Prior knowledge:
The protein is α/β, with parallel strands linked by helices.
Amino acid sequence: xxxxxxxxxxxxxxxxxxxxxxxxxxxxxxxxxxxxxxxxxxxxxxxxxxxxxxxxxxxxxxxxxxxxxxxxxxxxxxxxxxxxxxxxxxxxxxxxxxxxxxxxxxxxxxxxxxxxxxxxxxxxxxxxxxxxxxxxxxxxxxxxxxxxxxxxxxxxxxxxxxxxxxxxxxxxxxxxxxxxxxxxxxxxxxxxxxxxxxxxxxxxxxxxxxxxxxxxxxxxxxxxxxxxxxxxxxxxxxxxxxxxxxxxxxxxxxxxxxxxxxxxxxxxxxxxxxxxxxxxxxxxxxxxxxxxxxxxxxxxxxxxxxxxxxxxxxxxxxxxxxxxxxxxxxxxxxxxxxxxxxxxxxxxxxxxxxxxxxxxxxxxxxxxxxxxxxxxxxxxxxxxxxxxxxxxxxxxxxxxxxx
Length: 403
């Protein structure tokens, strides 16, 4: 009797997610064999000892008795109201609770918002390098991902002329990831204003991924995109995962602002898709009001002397000392995006060698739809000793390559 072959969807041909891909699976195999692996592949604060603020845990516990039934498809009212208040505090006016939707993390909401918009062949402008979920979600929903350049020589800020050249009559939206994952770039007001103007001129929807909005270092200044987008629709995405170290709660939100006349059918379509999944995780939503309205403990981690600030400093200093590495300093987020200063480097081969020989797991730079094969992304979440050890192992392998 023949064994049936289960074929995969053709849509997956252009989908990559090496953050939890082949290398990650190999790392788990090595761990089962008894090896200790340093995981630099994913920004998962809880894995490195960062705790969700206690007040958020208590808010969930106190409201568990209200969490056993489905809630409204857009989310519980206090959570959405807290997002509205945050938007207003940032200068985004005209947003109501009806303009906010809660999701099972930002990832689900990205998928819903793109699915409600795209028809086959529609184009979405996405930064290069990108967070690969954005490209995957466009492709899986029948669209075409068009990557606009964010050159390293410009500090990974978007190339505005490059964006203009890519806009066609099929372009529907532009994605902004700020602070940026994977590079840590924090975009200037001038850059964001220019993108907002391009979106207005070409009637593009703006998807602004701001999940790292308060993870900033030194003098970096975060500008909410929704404060600049007035003449078209802006969808702002954020959540509890990073700033509030609550990845496992799976709580994200999207807030729609800007000129929403003419977008009524689209917004109804997003709500329809949200209704099909009934609602997002209810217990975690009860932590949102406490998180957004309380003490912002992330500042104790990102200010000088804080653990994230010091991990970033350690990474910058290690790269500066290395004869094999260089890097644009990250101004925000939880990552570094170094480049390898050796000829003919294959970033996937390097990442595999590093895992097999030095037991460090990171992500090849080309996995983020970035040209070339000499970059990699690493998280700066580990404590001082673990991060220092990992950086030493990276340099040791590169010394072997050089010799």
